[in-house]
Structures are given as C-alpha cells and as structure tokens.
Write a structure and sequence with these properties.
By secondary structure, the protein is α/β, with parallel strands linked by helices. The chain has three domains: about 1-150, Rossmann fold (3-Layer(aba) Sandwich), CATH 3.40.50.300; about 155-215, Helicase, Ruva Protein, domain 3; about 220-344, Zinc Finger, Delta Prime, domain 3 (Up-down Bundle), CATH 1.20.272. About 60% of the residues lie in helices and about 10% in strands. A six-stranded parallel sheet has the order 1-6-2-5-4-3, with helices on both faces. Helix 4 links the parallel strand 3 and strand 4.
Length: about 350
C-alpha cells in the first residue's frame, strides 16, 4: 500500500500499473490524481473513446467492467476503465452483498488485467476514523492500493496556493498559512470552495490579511498582541485568561497559534535589525509595518526579550504546530502548554 506522494513519484517516473485501488476520506484528492493518471496515458483527442466509467453503487455484476477492459483501445496504446465509489470494497459486509460472488470472480481477474487497459477502483470511507479493511488488504498483494489520506502542513499549503494561482490570485506565505489553519477538516473540495469565495470577494486586487479576517475570522490581532504582551511581562495568569477569552469568543486554535508565532517572528526581526544598527524608517519598510505607533509598541515589547528567548519561543510555536497537526492533540491544551513554556 502506498500513499499519494509515492503514487505521484511513480507517475512522474513512468511507473504505471495495470490495476489501482484508491481508498481514503478525500474523494477530491482521489479524483484529482486519477485525472493526472488519465492525462498521462491517454491522448486528449481520444479520451472519450478510451475512457469508460462505472458507478460502483449501481453495478449488478462485473460483466460490463470486464468487457470494457477486454475491448482494445482506439488509436491509443492504453484505455482506462474506472469504477468509482466502489463501496463494496470498503465494507466488511461486501462479501455478503449482491456483488459477493461476482467480487470473488473479479479478484482473480485483477491479477490478469490486459496490458492495454488500466483498471481503476476508488472507494470513499464514510468516516475519517475508518481504515482499510480485510477486503482492501487482501487486494494489496495483487494490485496497487493507494491510500488517499487528508494532506496537511506544507503539502496542504502548497496545494491551496495552487488553487489561488489557478485563479490568478497572489497571497503571501504567512497569510496562506493563516487561511489554511482556519480551514477545518482539510477537505480539499470544501477548501477550494472557500478559496473561490475569497477570490470573488477580492475581485480585481490581491488578497490581504484583512480580507481573510473579515470572511473567516473570530477574534483580532490586538487580542494576540495582548497575549504576547502578557508573556513578555511574565504574567502567565493574564496570558492564560486572554487565551481562554479568545477561544470562548470563537477564535480557532490554529489561527491563535499562527498569530502568536507571527508576533514572535516580528519581534525577533525587529530586535535583530535594531542590533544591526537599522533605523526606524528602514525597519518599517523592510517589515512592511504601516503604523508608527504599532512599530513603537513592538519595539518596546521586543526589548523585554533576548534574541535567544525569541528564537526559542518561535521554536516552541513550530513544535506546537507540529503536535497539533500530526498527533491530533487538543488544540487548547497545546496552546496552554505553549504559554507555560514561553513564560518559563
């Protein structure tokens, strides 16, 4: 069993199998990668003649699927046969369904799919807690099984950035990270819809952080500033109180973390530039700080930390982000631990 990244690598290197089973929670991700496979093996002018689709939920038997596989491609080296939403492969009761006997028959056929054909199945898990069952594992030794898990972290950010680029929109890296952190569930289909909304809202101009705040945000940067200010004053009680206020007001924990990380990063840059002898106008221009008052406040705040403390705080933020994304830990608890560690 391989993941989407391994599938993409194999596709790029020209390693293409005769039979695939895609399984996972994200149907958008599966369909997108199947499109990449089809684009790689079929000529655009002959796709309609060499691409056959079947609805797995409507199949009475596999005769039509096998016949499609056995038919020679037209003006092409390959043809593609897709059985989508093949739920009979996901469910344990699949062997007892109306397709049980037929499925046992086609299992043997999967090992001998003709060289001129690429047969693809995909099944979407009903819950994010679902895992591949015995049916899928029994096929893994005979065909290429691709697990389409939700993408996260930098992979998700790169994917979402492409959504913006397709629509001719520019978005800064930090704003992109904030946007991704505000998206719940990492469902690419849902995220693409939100990207479309944001692009329509900002028609004719680049996306600004204020646009993301207006459309998706509860809470404000001032509240984040107050949290960091409490940390700089070693006032843990105040910092935890403000954190709880933010969470109770509806701010997403991912967003809070991103903004705390951004604030520490800004303080680090300001302090570093000041120590290198840079002046206020140059620093404001380099860091794109528009408010002279805001700059003065951040300078005062930066003086309460050493460069080492700020660097450590940024590292703690990155570690907290990693834990929240990869270990599915409670976001609020992780933020509380972050505040405790930064004050310590």
């Amino acid at each position: 069993m391989i993941d989407i990244a391994a599938f993409n690598k194999n596709l790029k290197n020209g390693h293409i199998e005769n039979c695939y089973l895609f399984c996972g929670n994200d149907e958008f991700l599966m369909r997108e990668n199947i499109r990449l496979l089809i684009k790689r093996v079929l000529k655009p002018d002959f796709i309609d003649l060499n691409y056959v689709k079947f609805d797995g939920n409507s199949l009475e038997n596999f005769d039509a699927v096998i016949n499609a596989c056995e038919t020679l491609p037209f003006m092409s080296d390959k043809k593609v046969v897709l059985v989508y939403r093949a739920s009979f492969m996901e469910e344990e009761r699949g062997y007892k369904s109306k397709l049980s006997g037929e499925f046992k028959k086609i299992k043997g056929y999967l090992k001998n799919v003709p060289q001129q054909c690429i047969l693809i199945f995909y099944c979407v898990f009903k819950s994010k807690r679902d895992k591949p069952g015995r049916i899928i594992y029994s096929l893994d030794k005979d065909i290429c099984v691709v697990k389409a898990d939700k993408i996260k972290g930098y992979q998700l950010e790169n994917k979402v950035q492409k959504f913006f680029q397709i629509r001719g929109k520019n978005i800064r890296k930090m704003d992109l990270r904030i946007f991704c952190n505000l998206m719940e569930g990492n469902n690419l289909s849902v995220i693409e819809n939100e990207v479309e909304k944001l692009c329509c809202y900002t028609c004719g101009r680049d996306i600004k952080r204020e646009d993301i705040q207006k459309m998706f945000l509860s809470g404000s940067e001032e509240d984040i500033f107050d949290v960091v200010n409490a940390i700089s004053n070693k006032n843990l009680k105040r910092a935890l109180y403000l954190l709880n206020e933010l969470v109770d007001s509806g701010a997403k924990t991912n967003y809070i973390l991103s903004m705390i990380e951004r604030q520490f990063s800004m303080l680090f840059k300001i302090k570093l530039l000041l120590e290198r002898g840079k002046k206020k106008p140059e620093i404001m221009k380099l860091l794109k700080i528009k408010s002279g008052y805001g700059y003065s406040i951040m300078v005062q705040q930066s003086k309460k930390f050493t460069l080492r403390q700020l660097k450590r705080s940024i590292g703690l933020c990155l570690n907290t982000e990693k834990n929240m994304k990869s270990l599915s830990l409670d976001g609020k608890t992780e933020l509380e631990l972050l505040l405790i560690n930064t004050v310590a």
